[in-house]
Design a protein that fits this description.
Length: 400
Amino acid sequence: MAEVKLAYEWGDGVYTLLSWFKKEKVKDAHVLVAGAGALGNEVVKNLALFGVGHIYVVDFDQIEISNLTRSVLFREEDAYNHAFKADIVAKRAMEINPQIKVTPIVGNLFSEVGFGLYNSVDVVIGCLDSRIARYQLNRLCMRAGKTWIDGSIENMTGAVRVYAPGKSCYECGLSREEFNNIMLRTGCADVVRTQGKAGRIATTPISASIVGAMQVQEAMKVIHQEEGEETPFKTLEGKMLRYEGLTNTMNIYKFASWKSNCPAHERWDKITQGIELSATQTVTQVLKKLKDALNANMVEINMRNNKFIDKIISDQPEKEFEVMIPESKLDAYIKQNEELRKLSYRTLFHKHFYENIDKSFPYKNLTLQQIGIPLFDVIEVSTDKGVYHVELTNDASLYI
Ligand SMILES: [Zn+2]
C-alpha cells in the first residue's frame, strides 16, 4: 500500500500563534552557518525546527567518535564512514524538516566559499573553535556588510557575541598580542610554517545547547529586522552574553569595538554582477571576458589573501619544489608529501608566488578554481578604468 503523506506547511498552527513570527520571512531566509561541530549541530537543528528555508553549512572536517558526545545530528556509523560533518548535518537537518534546503559545503570558509554566498545571505552564524577562523569570518562578513553571531563554548561556560558592520567588529576587539599571533599563524609572512591541528576543547552538550539556542534566537531577530520598522526585540548587537553553568549565571556585557583605522572594515558594496563568469573557466577565458565586459585595455585579477604558488624553495638543502597550488592548500600539501614533510621539521620554505594575475601569468590554461578562486566568488579586478568587484555569476545557480 502506498504511503499516505499529509499535506501540511511547517509551523502552521504553532509558529502562527506567535505575534512576531513572520512565516514568509523565515521561509525565504538564507543563513550561512560556519562550522558543523557541536555548536553547528545545535544551530542547524534549531534553524531547521524554525523552518528557515535556506541553510548553508560549511566545514572541512570529518566526523570522529569523540564528536558523538555533543553532536545531536551525528551517528556512530558516520564516524566509521569518515563522513564529512557538513554533509551529515545537512542530510539530518532535512530529515527533521523536509520542507527546507540545507546545502553542505565541504571546505574552508575563507578560501573555498565564494564571496557571492556571503553577499547573498541574511545573516551568518559562527560556530568556530579558533581565533584565526573568527578573524577570517569577521573580515568576510564586514566586507559583505552582514551581521554575524559568534558562539563559543568551554567546559560549563559559553558566550554569544553579535558583530554588526559599523557598530562592532571582532578584529577591533583583539589585543595586539592576539592580533600578532593570528598574523604569524595565518602565514602572512613570506615564510612557510606548518600549523598544528587546533587542540580539542573540553566542553559539554549543555553548553553547546544553550549557546547554539541563543545564537539562533539572535539570528531570528536579524531575519525579522526590516529597515524603518519597529520590532519588539532587544538584540545582542555590540554585546556579549555570557553563561556560567557552574553558578547558573547569565550576564550581558557591552562589547562593541569599532576603530577608525581597522583594515577589516573595507566594504565591497558595489558588486558587478551578470558577466557570464565561472570559477571553472580558464584564466585566458576570464581575462578576455573581463576586458570585453568592463571595456578595459588592461585587466588584472588581485588574489588578495590567497596567492597562487608555483614553487617553494627550501633553505637546506637549497632545492626547488614545483607545487602549483593556492597558498591556502600549502600546509596540507607539505604534510602529505613525504620529502617535504621531513624537511619541514628543520628547514624553512620560501614561496614563489603570484599575487596579481594578468596576461603575463605563465599558467593561463589553469582554471580560476585551480589557482585558488572558489565557485561563486567575487574577484577584485584592477583595470585602467578603476577597480571592480566582479561576481562569478554563472556559479550562483549552484547555491541559490
Ligand atoms: Zn574592525
